[in-house]
């Protein structure tokens, strides 16, 4: 059976031919924001050929896992949306069904589940792309296992309730809790999968704070679930599955001292829950000024400097000190009658990316954007700010403000992120979509930012961001750095550096105005 919703209108050269290694096709991460997510256009499972084929309207790099008990082949399509409700297709024979669902906001998941008593040789599973958007997953003939998964459960060693509940079908649970990390600002509970829904409740005596993460399971890798803390007036953290919950839920219990601050939990789009005091923390002693893992002690933890540090910037031609004391000269455009839309990403309930020490994208980019707007106005430009405070705004109103306000240029400002376990990824990049004018705007801004801040220059790239595709004027989207980067995060947390970033962005915009308008 073939499922069609909308067929693609372009073809690209083959991106990858991949062979499934045992249990996992090498972890291929392709971060994407919902604004630029592609869509699963069609899929088909051929029972005669034992083959899954699927098509997307944007380039995708699938990851594939073979999961036991029962055997399931799980194919994740990062940066891809389904655009409809979950689909289940019964197959028959050795294969029970194929399920297609939206696993999280950025990932569509296809699951091929075998009937009990059957398994696959992962070495013989072939994943091949004829183009960036057209993929084939060729399954070998399923083999009968010596003992079916359904009957083998009784032969397995007994486990505690928490251990048993931790083993969850990744296709059927929205989120998994992976670990706990202490930060300079509080605590970070790292999750994978969908953004968790968090319910927060205090005990009557205020000595216990309970967080309930709905549709969440404990990761099997999370072995330490009773943690002595002794930080920030928190003495202990306990993690446990909640009994009788369907879908499953995880309970996080913090034991508090009498003088503990008022805590607030916020789920992030990047993956995790940030727990910080509503009024901030008092200055921590030197031993508390690093980010420290509280779970899985066998894993090496990267010490992270506090956000406010002297800014040192690499430069090929000049010393770091010379770079930051060198003023950035801004062109005057008061004779051009130009109107520029500045779009600070995210806001309100949507913090955007959350990085090292809980650094939030929405705070970083609002500060930079406000400074950019002020600098542009000082140089004679009119400015439309799509977000002036910590307010959540959808994408369509941002575009509408620019279009109806007759802006000559549109610049959206964001901060990048990858995984907190990859602090070595740092740098700035700028995006455009389709038009040569958009490319020139992006290139001018990117050059100015790289030269003015000394940040790693990732370059200019084309992307189908909503705000770039739907604005009627030259548009660019600036990623000012990685809030998860060991080098970038302390800089982005520093108001002095954010001022420098704003000057560099404003200079690029004004240079484009001088050259093109």
Which features would summarize this protein structure in a list?
Aminopeptidase, Immunoglobulin-like, 3 domains, alpha+beta, single chain, 517 residues, 34% strand, 6-stranded mixed sheet, globular
* Terminal residue distance: 54 Å
User: What Rg, in angstroms, do the CA atoms define?
Assistant: 25 Å
Q: State the total count of DSSP E strands.
A: 31
At CATH level 2, the architecture of the largest domain is 3-Layer(aba) Sandwich
Shape descriptor reads globular
CATH topology of the largest domain: Aminopeptidase
CATH class of the largest domain: Alpha Beta
Described by strand count, sense and barrel closure, the largest sheet is: 7 strands, mixed
Number of helices: 9
Give the proportion of residues in helices. Answer: 10-25%
Low-confidence stretches: 1-35, 146-168, 282-291, 296-322
User: What is the total number of structural domains?
Assistant: 3
Percent strand equals: 25-35%
CATH homologous superfamily of the largest domain - what is it?
A: Zn-dependent exopeptidases
Structural class: alpha+beta
